[in-house]
Design brief:
With about 650 residues, this protein is of the alpha+beta class. It contains 23 helices and 29 strands. It starts with 6 loop residues before the first strand and ends with a strand.
Length: about 650
Amino acid sequence: MFKLNRRSFLAGTSAVFVLPALPAVSAEYREADNLKEKVSSGALPAVNERLPENPLVIKPTEKIGKYGGDWNLAIVGGGSLGHLFRYQAYEPLVRYNPEWSGITLNVAEAFDANEDATQYTVRLRKGMKWSDGAPFTTADIKFWYDTILTDKRVAVTGQGHWKTEGKPAKLDVIDEQTFKVTFAKPNGLFPLQIAWADTDQTTRCPKHYLEQFHIDYNPRADEAAKAQGFQSWITAFQSLSGFQDANTFFLNSSKKPALTAWNFSVAPGENTERAIAERNPFYWKVDTDGNQLPYMDRVVYQVVADPQVLLLKAMQGEIDMMDQYIGTPNNKAVLYDAREQGKFDFYALTSTEANVMTFMLNLNHSDETKRALFRNKDFRVALSLALDRQSLIDAVLVSQGTPGQPSIRADDPLYNEQLATQFIDYDVEKANAMLDAIVPDRDDQNFRRDAKGRRLSVIFEIDQARTAFLDFFQLVIPMYQAVGIDAQMRTMDRSLWETRIRQGRDFDATVHQFGASGGIGAMLDPRYYLPSDSNAFYAPAWSLWYTDPANPRAEEPPEETRKQFALYDKLKSKGDPAGQQEIMKEIIQGAADNFYVFGVSLPPDGYGIVKNNLKNISMTMPNSWPWPTPGPTRPEQFYKV
């Protein structure tokens, strides 16, 4: 059995565990003043009784902080709640380290693997508690396994890293702190996938709270659900557990206990102006002087209507830290001039995303004519050739970018020149010639007609908060009209966009920005290289065939895509990083040949703003969802002066 040392590689993976230093004070811990008052009144146990026997020790980025203050952030439009994981809810069993060079222990006190990566043994921290003081043990892990992962009635999708060949791993509970996970085949990516953004659900499932909503634990759950307006206990459990997707997770969070540094007292949706998360008195981390974390008392999210309102608030100094929605090239000059007024400065974001904007046609469209057209590679190539990328980059990115497809960066070992550079030339003549061979008929306004004689319209449904996308499309639409395509833009709130794109087969197309451009990220999030999960918006039914084949919305993909799935299964079964990399190169070559999606430019490095009085901040960070910026830099040790 593999054992953790001070610094060691996890058997069968490329993950590195870095163990924390021991606290300078271990016999007696200290706490915030507002918690001392509650202890004195009898409302809370003493701090030593609230912490686990072996709390996780955090070495501050700069120095030991001080208690107090609010961390002022924002939610834009009320729809994009998933990014809250970036700030306060990134607490998996193991997490990425601040440098993104490996993973480190977190909720788990120990995480060991056997030699062929088929079995993992995990030990939790003895005495660890949920935010309401209830014990956190393997009973919570078992409850998640029984009611979320394997309960077909609840049917929550995802969690593919817990499965091999579509079947869940076996869970064995050893004692209150220890459990084993056994896979039928090697699963070398398992630890890396647990550390991925919001992936690890095992640390977010309090049995003592959620069992009231599940019929196997509460015989009256169905009756109670209907009294609350739900159709059944199943819909109630799906909604109130929050595991349907990242956006719904926080909607019931003021009632649900958590392991996070701050827990919502006013959850998103409960107030139209703000959401408030308050210090968790049972948080299980301390600094190297023995001070219980977090340092700051609250996280306060202002609910703002759109990015322009957010920009104004940032300029006025009302936002402590932010890059989402405002860190655009066009805003940088304005924010630079407002630094003194708003008392903030910039932090740097190194880009890790595959493209600034990826075009995705719905290859599983419910309309058979559009489906056949969108699946025609030549049609997608023609649309790519119709884009004047340099004009788009000059106008929207202030000339910061280079024309390119969604791909791997040139300095990465996985780089594929064909994938990165094919069909990026602006060639209207060739685009028209290719389209003439596919859809030659035109109407009296010179728009092309499809096989049924209808005007060939392609409606791109877009998250309205992504202002750069809206700016791009002001230029993209006339480019497509010039080759006879009636391109249209339909904007909507993020929550509606999520529902439309993830659940439906009736949308034509969309655009998005995420997806990894190399390294660990590309192997764990290959969304643009094969439709591996629900983030592959261009092929939602094919991704379901791969992740949840019994789902009635699943559809078997063509042979070339099935070959890529087989390669990805082979990659996940590999124990050595070199072997994984060679298989990933084959997958990327398949992406180049299939040309599922196309884009504008590899992203330039970005920026965010941070108030001058906010300390222990990493001033250079990866810009990523998988490494959920700034979550791995440990916001619990941020403080104000």
